[in-house]
Amino acid sequence: MTFPDWTPDDFRRHGHQVVDWIADYLARVEELPVVSRVEPGEIRAMLPPRAPEEAEAFDAILADLDRVIVPGVTHWQHPGWFAYFPTGASPPSILGDLVSSGLGVVGFLWATSPAATELESHVMDWLVDLLDLPQGWKTTGPGGGVIQMSASDATHLAFVVARHRMRETAPVERMVVYSSREAHSSVEKGARVAGVPHVRPVAVDGELAMVPAAFEAAVVADLEAGRTPLAVVSTVGTTGTTAIDPVRAVGQIARRHGLWHHVDAAYAGTAMVCPEFRHHQDGLELVDSYVFNPHKWMLTNFDCSAFWVADRRPLIEAMSILPPYLRNAASESGQVIDYRDWHVPLGRRFRALKLWFVLRSYGAEGIRAMVRRHVELARGLADRLESDPRFELVAPVPFSLVTFRHVAGDRATDELAAGLNASGDVYVTPSHLDSGSFIRVSIGQRTTEARHVERLWQLIDELAPPA
Amino acid sequence: MTFPDWTPDDFRRHGHQVVDWIADYLARVEELPVVSRVEPGEIRAMLPPRAPEEAEAFDAILADLDRVIVPGVTHWQHPGWFAYFPTGASPPSILGDLVSSGLGVVGFLWATSPAATELESHVMDWLVDLLDLPQGWKTTGPGGGVIQMSASDATHLAFVVARHRMRETAPVERMVVYSSREAHSSVEKGARVAGVPHVRPVAVDGELAMVPAAFEAAVVADLEAGRTPLAVVSTVGTTGTTAIDPVRAVGQIARRHGLWHHVDAAYAGTAMVCPEFRHHQDGLELVDSYVFNPHKWMLTNFDCSAFWVADRRPLIEAMSILPPYLRNAASESGQVIDYRDWHVPLGRRFRALKLWFVLRSYGAEGIRAMVRRHVELARGLADRLESDPRFELVAPVPFSLVTFRHVAGDRATDELAAGLNASGDVYVTPSHLDSGSFIRVSIGQRTTEARHVERLWQLIDELAPPA
Q: Which residue from A5, A133, B168, B248 puts its CA 20 to 30 A from B295's CA?
């Protein structure tokens, strides 16, 4: 039997069909219920028990997208998406990623596709200027940027590098990492995966930001107990409420005691394209590594997590292993970056393309305009909530996340969240703090406009019982 | 200033342009030199020093693909690609990935897009049957499959799970992992990242397969020295020469001493669609985890690494952390899989779509036909090399990798490799063993046909000096 492959023209024909399908999806997504209504097992029940023996026609597959897949999709690209954080999937980003798939190169060495490495270094250096990060973080300086899969991978990597650097000083069983108690679960998970057994959730102030004195007290207590403070994570924009840890104060304490200082700005990093938000990350010269996700608020589709180190040497020292089949003249010249030494996996996609497409298609001004629109919408919603006696805000609104609760307590708050999510028009995230249940409204979907936030407010107003 | 976004119809128009660009690229890639000829820094020198402030027209970006990017690409999709292993980027896979980008969902919980989780479980179960893996590895049994980013991630994950399981038994400083000395560098890297300090490269036989007795002797020596044997990796198809470790014998020893047994079939796993290759993985019922890369030989574009565990409980126990913003009714019902608990990152792409597109577009018979064609081409080349007095094979050819050297020694072999790669028509990987330099010819690119291997042979014949 022969191998029944597609010609380039088959790809052209079916590619146009898929582009049309996506264009139609983007045009109609607003009419679909945001949250999928299927029950567990419902999607699988529509699929045959075994893979087909014979090739199927492409039209059959395309038809199944509508029949099987779309009913099981919760629409992250819906303009009524107010859950979690947004995930970027702008049209230029989708096309940049398509080019990456089409070229199908794996840039683990500079030599295996020089453009993949050089474009990545270049756009990461562009971002240093765009976000006003320290100039030394450019690949032309002592540091450098690299695209990771996710912020979880980046935070884990920071711990591994720090642990590797200290491996002759102390056993891992005594190592400790610190973050505010409001930090993302990836801190605890990254520490666990890296084998670091002690994670200290540090106390927060009234705005849910880390209390530097509490951090230092924890470090001192661990030192006195014979443990080894390894690393601290400052979060700029926590997942729960976008609280902002004091990067400079944390950095000073970290320097004093020799800890690796990692900044998690996964969501809020994008805001730094606007000068008016940069005071929130004051103190970056006291930081060893930094991550933000263009795949959240910067219009870039998953996965694209931007990670910088102030000094690339300990990173490469921890990650580099050179088997004979990867030796090559370019690497040995010392003139090139081999990104395989900058993360855990060997293989890597040409992800810089989509970031390049986004930065050029919107321009810095376009991204700033989007960020400012979302922030303005969030402040408008926060004002309305604040002036209604039924609600109270849970935390300040420095960016575009609004957190609030019903003053009648957890039950009213939980029921309101459930009601909103059952509407089909919006999706919010119910969450809780020690002080009780609350509702997260994250405004950051590319197509979210005033009318969508207006619809959300209308639903809140209708569904919420009196105070 | 307003946010200058694309309409769905802008996406449609530019999407058609990009599909056409890729179709043209696929049609002409054979005429391009396989290996990029740029010098370090040449690509970056063509890029502006700062990101644009204003949005640029899409046509300008598209033009730069040809001007800036293509000259810096080493063409993994060229039919003369005989380097490393192949990377799949079949037309259906590119389109499946495009749909994933278009939907832009993040399936870390079942609830965040049920179709993403259920299709992934389903196609991973399909693969259990297609590759004749143990039935208990299905998600409907005690085990289960999940798509990871890369085999390196999967091997690292196996070590982390094994280490977590043993965390109360022994300090990590005493833990040891084992593999054949021919195993991939991801074993050493995975151990290092997981903080496991001892890696034992076990002796190999004349066919470069692990010697079980040597493995057991190493385990016993470590036990006697007070260390803790943690895990062993059996490779089915090593990167150097596609050597095959004896999975059953290794598994029996692993069971006897309580080690986690991980199988790395990153490249060769695809061959198991054909019954005639399955004897090479005899003993899978003695395996705890298994990885193969559809993104290598199974026509699926990077990244798509298929990972199974025989028992999902220790995996989930090691990986699960539940913050308040991720709680939801479906997870609490226990009826669904939440794949965030099956790997290090939280976020995840809807990668099952491309695998589904591939399996349906080619059918099992189509994939078998491709594998058999590549294997037949490899055996034909091996026969020619073997019957020419200038050459000798370095290792057997169980799959589609041919390894050979010039009998005149390292210099003749190295110069032959350099000459082949300078031709522009083919790309091979120079490598070496203790016995000296050799050349890897990996036949597995989707479009490679007899005439491309014929051209490679013609070049070898022309460029090689007499014996």
A: B248
